[in-house]
Amino acid sequence: MSDVRHVLVLPDRDAAQEAAEALGERFGITEEARLVRDALAGEDDAEDAQWLVVLRDEDERLDPGELDAFAGEWDGWREEP
């Protein structure tokens, strides 16, 4: 079993929450994704933060290209490891 993780970078908290909820419907993910606030370097304002949706894919069944397109629906992208 591997420890593959995917990180989706999204522009704000609302987008991250919506995407995390939609992951189960779209990809059949049963484990809850983790939301992480990623403040931009040197910025203290919450408006200048990106949000990360982190999900494990131990069976490596999720297609990176599909995840990138999925994140793009919320103006985000999948970060390459």
Q: If you had to describe this structure to a student in words, what would you say it looks like?
A:
The structure is a single chain. The protein is of the alpha+beta class. The protein contains 2 helices and 4 strands; from the N terminus they run E-H-E-E-H-E. It has helices at residues 13-27, 64-72, and strands at residues 5-10, 34-39, 49-56, 77-79. The chain has a 4-stranded antiparallel sheet with strand order 2-3-1-4. The chain starts with a strand and ends with a strand.
β-sheet strand percentage: 25-35%
- Tell me the span between the first and last alpha carbons: 18 Å
Largest sheet geometry = 4 strands, antiparallel
Instruction: Using the alpha-carbon principal axes, give the shape.
Output: globular
Helical proportion? Answer: 25-40%
Question: Which sequence of strands runs across the widest sheet?
Answer: 2-3-1-4
- Counting DSSP E segments of at least 2 residues, the number of strands comes to 4
Structural class by sheet pairing and helices = alpha+beta
Assembly classification: single chain
